Amino acid sequence: MRRLSPSFFYKFVILFFIGIIILVVSNTLRAQEKQNPDQQLQYKSDHSADIENTILNEKVDSVLALMKINEKIGQLVQYSGGWDVTGPSSSKGDQHKLDKLKKGEVGSMLNVTSVASIRETQRIVMEHSRLKIPLIFAYDVIHGYKTIFPIPLGESASWDLDMIGQSAYIAAKESAASGLNWTFAPMIDVSRDARWGRVMEGAGEDTFLNAEIGVARIKGFQGNNLANVNTIAACAKHFAGYGFGEAGRDYNTVHIGEYELHNTILPPFKAAADAGVATFMNSFNDIDGIPATGHKVLQRDVLKGKWNWDGFIVSDWGSIGEMVAHGYALDKEHAAEIAMNAGSDMDMESYAYEAALETLLDENKVTIAQIDDAVKRVLKLKFELGLFDDPYRYCDEERERTQVYTPEHLYVSRNVAKKSIVLLKNENELLPLSKTINSIAVIGPLADDKNSPLGNWRAKAEYNSAISLLEGVKASADKNTTIYYEKGIDLTIPTVEPGQNQFLHPLQFNTTDRSGIEKAVKAAKKADVVLLAIGEDAYQTGEGRSQTDIGFKGLQIELLEAVQAVNPNVVVVLMNGRPMDLSRPTELAPAILECWHLGSQSGYAIADVLFGRYNPSGKLPVSFPHNVGQEPLYYNQKNTGRPYNPKHVTFSGYRDAPKTALYPFGFGLSYTTFEYSNLKTSKTEINTDGSLLVTVDVKNTGDVMGEEVVQLYIRDLVGSLTRPIKELKGFQKIQLEPGETKTVTFLLDKERLQFYTINKTWEVEPGQFNIWVGGSSEASLKTSFTVVE
Ligand code: BGC
Fold this sequence. Notes:
Blueprint: H1 6-35, H2 46-64, H3 69-75, E1 77-80, H4 92-102, E2 108-110, H5 115-128, E3 136-139, H6 152-156, H7 161-177, E4 182-183, H8 207-222, E5 235-239, H9 258-265, H10 267-274, E6 279-282, E7 286-287, E8 290-291, H11 296-306, E9 312-314, H12 322-325, H13 332-342, E10 347-348, H14 352-362, H15 368-384, H16 397-402, H17 407-420, E11 422-426, E12 439-443, H18 469-476, E13 482-486, H19 517-526, E14 529-535, H20 556-566, E15 570-575, H21 583-588, E16 591-594, H22 602-610, E17 674-681, E18 685-687, E19 692-700, E20 706-716, E21 727-736, E22 741-748, H23 750-753, E23 755-756, E24 762-763, E25 767-774, E26 781-788
Parallel strand pairs: 1-2, 1-10, 2-3, 3-4, 5-6, 6-9, 12-13, 12-14, 14-15, 15-16, 18-26
Antiparallel strand pairs: 7-8, 11-16, 17-19, 19-22, 20-21, 20-25, 23-24, 25-26
This protein binds beta-D-glucopyranose.
C-alpha cells in the first residue's frame, strides 16, 4: 500500500475542513432565509425579469380568455363590506353584494377585516363562482394596523426614510397577517393649506419630500416581492390635485395650471410609479373643470401612457358616480362611460360599472380593448400577490394571533414617535427636564387622553390604547419627583359613546365648563414645571374635517393663560394633526414641543424627549403660520414682481402680518446646536446634462450628542417660467457627537435641476442657480453655480 505523503495529508485535511465550513455556512444561510423570508435578497437579471413578465402576461391572458363579459366587468367592481365573521347580513345591500360575489362579479372588497371574515368572504367566491377568481381585500392602513405609528404628517417630521419604511413594513406585516392584501396608502398629495383636514395624512407641503417619503412608504408596504406573506400592495393617492382644494375645503375645486400641476403635484406620483407602486387611486376634486376620476389626460395619457405604468387605478369612494353631482355626467351610466374612457379601472362603491359597462359596450361607447386592459391589470396583481396559487394565502389564524401588536412592533412605534417630535421653542433650556426635578404638573385636556394620540385613520387600533402623556411621565420620572395631574377643561363635548366609531360624527367644541381651571392653577402653582397638553382631538383632522380656524378650540388658551400666570415654566406639549396658529403659546410659553398624534406609544416617546433620553431631531414638514389668514402658506413661493421691501408699502404680502411663517418648513431645534461652514461645489459651471457635488461641514457645537437633518435648497434664478424662491433638493439625517464635525455631500444632477418648462417637457435650463444648505428652509449659507448650454 502506498503511504500518503505528509503534505498530501495536510492538504486533504485543509480541504476537508473548508468543505465542512462551506456546508455549515450555506446551511445556516438557508435556515436564516427560511426563518426570515423578508431578508432574502432578490437578485434578478433583466433577462429573467423579462421571462417572468412574459409568463405572468400569459397567465393573465389565459384567465382572460375564459371570462364572459359579466365576469370581466365584475373584476372592475369593488364593494365595501363592513360585515363580520358570519359574512353578509340580510340587509338588501348586503344581499346584492352576496349575489354578485356568488356570480363572480366582484373583483375586490374593502373594509372586510380579520382572517375569519376574509376567509369567509373568499370562500363564497371560491365555492360558488364559475371561474373562482380570488378577491383582493383592501383597507385604509394609513399609519399602522393595530400597532399605531405617528400620523403620516408627524412621521414625516422625522425625515428618516429608513424609519418610515420600517413603520410601513410593520403596518403591512400586521395587515397581511390579518388577511389583507392591499392598503390605500400612501397619500402623496402635496398639501399647503392647514385648513384642509387631510394635511395629517401626507408628508406636507413639499414636492421633493413627498416623493422621497412616498417611495419609502411604498417600499415598506410592498417589499421586493408582493407574494411574500409579510407584504401588501400599496396605492398612490389621490391622483391628482386633491391637496389643492380651494381654501382648504375638502373635495373642492382645484384651480391649477398645467405647469404647476407637473412641477408641484405630479412628481411624487411619478416617483411612486417608478418605484413600482401596485395601484393608484384617483380623486374627488376637479382640476380646471375636469373631475380627476374622468381625467383622460392624467390617467391614460400621462400615467399609463408617458409613464408606462402597468398597475391599476381604483376610483375614490363613489367618485365615478359623483361626476353627476359635479355636473360633468348626465347620470351614472354617463359617468361610467367617462371614467372608463379616461382610464379609471376599478369602481369603488359607485355601482356604475356594474350597471352600465355592458350596455356601453353594446352601444360602442366604451371598447372591449379598454375593458380587457383594465381587467388584465387587476388580474396581474392577483397573480403577483399569489392569490391564484392559494386564495387563502394570507388567511392564517396563527399569524394573526402572533404577529399583530407585538412588543417588537410597539418598540419600533416608540422609536418612530420620538423621532417625529419637533422642538419648536426652548428658552433658557427649560428642556430637557432635570432628573432630580422636585415636582411636575401635568395639565390639560389631552394630558391623560389615551385616545387622541392614535389620530384619525387608525385602522384596527383599540379605543383608548395609546400611552398618555401622564402615563409616560409617571413611568419616566424619578421616584422622588411629585407629579400632579389636572385635566383643567374638556376639549370636546362627546357626541357618541366612548369606543363608538367616530369617523362620521362631527365634534363639538363649545365647552363652557371652567370648574377645573382653578384646580389646574393650584397644581401649576405647586410645581417646578408645567407640562400643558393642548391641541386637537384625533377626529379634528382627517377626511371631511376642514376648518377655517386653526387655533385652539374651546377654553384651551384660557387654560394656558391661567396656568402661565402662576407658573411661567410652561412646556406646551402640542398634539395635533395640522399646522396650528401658535402665536399665543409662542408669546406665553418658554417651551413648545410639537408631538402630533404620535400613536400607540405616544406618552413614552414624549417622555423620552422631555427627560432628555432622546435628543429631539424632528423638522417641520409644513410651515406654521402666524395666523390662519396666511394660508395657504409654504416656503417655496414665487418671488412675484413685488417681493417684500421694508421701505415700501406696495409689496406682495399683508399689512397686518408677516409674509413668512412663524415656524418655517424644515425647522426644528435640538438640545445641542449645529454650525454649518465650508459650503463648496465641485464645479462652478456644468452643462445641461452635467452634475456637481455640494459639500458642507456640519459641527455639533453643544455638549450632547444630536441628530441634524441637513437640507439643501436651490433656486433657478431665471427660467422660461417663473421659479420658486427656494426648492428642497436633498436632505440627509446625520448624527454628531459633541464637538464632532462631518462633511456632508449632495449630488446635484439633471434629475434635481430640471423642471417642466415652457416646452412642456423636463429640461435643465442654462443660467445661474443659487444653493443654500442648512437646518431649515431659512438656511442662509449660500453659494452658486452656472449651467451653460
Ligand atoms: C378616501 C380615500 C379612502 C377611501 C376608502 C375615501 O373617502 O378619500 O382616501 O381610501 O375613502 O376608505
